[in-house]
Write a structure and sequence with these properties.
There is one protein chain. This protein is an alpha+beta fold and 178 residues long. The chain contains 2 helices and 10 strands. Strands 5-4-3-2-9-10 form a 6-stranded antiparallel sheet, with no helix packed on it. A 4-stranded antiparallel sheet has the order 1-8-7-6, with no helix packed on it. The longest helix has 15 residues. It is extended, with a radius of gyration of 22 Å.
Length: 178
């Protein structure tokens, strides 16, 4: 692109943005329904890995999820770098087990891989899901697992083997959707 085109495009952009900025005499107050930003709460969530809308999973350990009619044990196995074909950023390999009975004796096992910006282009972010059969569990880089519409509770464990996972373990700290 030549220098003349760059100048013309810059001028057009400035004209387009000219009406977008307005000087204000008073600061903008947050909406009544929106709590003010609390940086201490934000950093506490980052440190503990427990937030209002998500919990950070630890690589190699199970996180348990309760859903209507079934429970899911999810373990992020390792972080991955996608191939050029995937055009994603960092990703994770996972294994998940879907339990559909009350005694946890029968389960279906699913193995997969997920990437941030899966299928999106530059600056086009979208929701990315771990797929466990019919379950879709939202995931993001940093290994955050989000409460979705149907996930009612989540608990982190120190378990690495599915045989050791116990949904009835009284020492589990269950976090419920706010």
């Amino acid at each position: 692109m030549g220098p003349v085109k760059i100048v013309i495009l810059s001028l057009l952009a400035m004209l387009a943005l000219r009406g977008c900025f307005v000087e204000m005499d008073e600061p903008v107050e947050p909406l009544a329904s929106e709590p003010p930003f609390d940086p201490n709460a934000y950093f506490e969530e980052m440190e503990t890995g427990v937030g209002e809308t998500a919990i950070r999973a630890e690589i190699g350990r199970f996180i348990l999820l309760r859903r209507d009619g079934a429970d899911v044990a999810l373990k992020l196995m390792e972080h991955t770098r996608p191939s050029r074909r995937d055009m994603g950023m960092l990703g994770a390999r996972y294994v998940c087990f879907v339990f559909e009975d009350d005694d946890y004796s029968h389960f279906k096992k699913y193995v997969g891989e997920v990437y941030e910006r899966e299928g999106g282009g530059f600056f086009r972010f979208r929701h990315v899901y771990v797929k466990c059969g019919t379950f879709k569990i939202e995931w993001s880089m940093g290994d955050w697992i989000y409460f979705g519409d149907s996930i009612s509770a989540m608990a982190r464990t120190d378990k690495t083997d599915i045989e050791d996972v116990d949904f009835a373990d009284e020492t589990l700290e269950w976090h419920h959707r706010e």
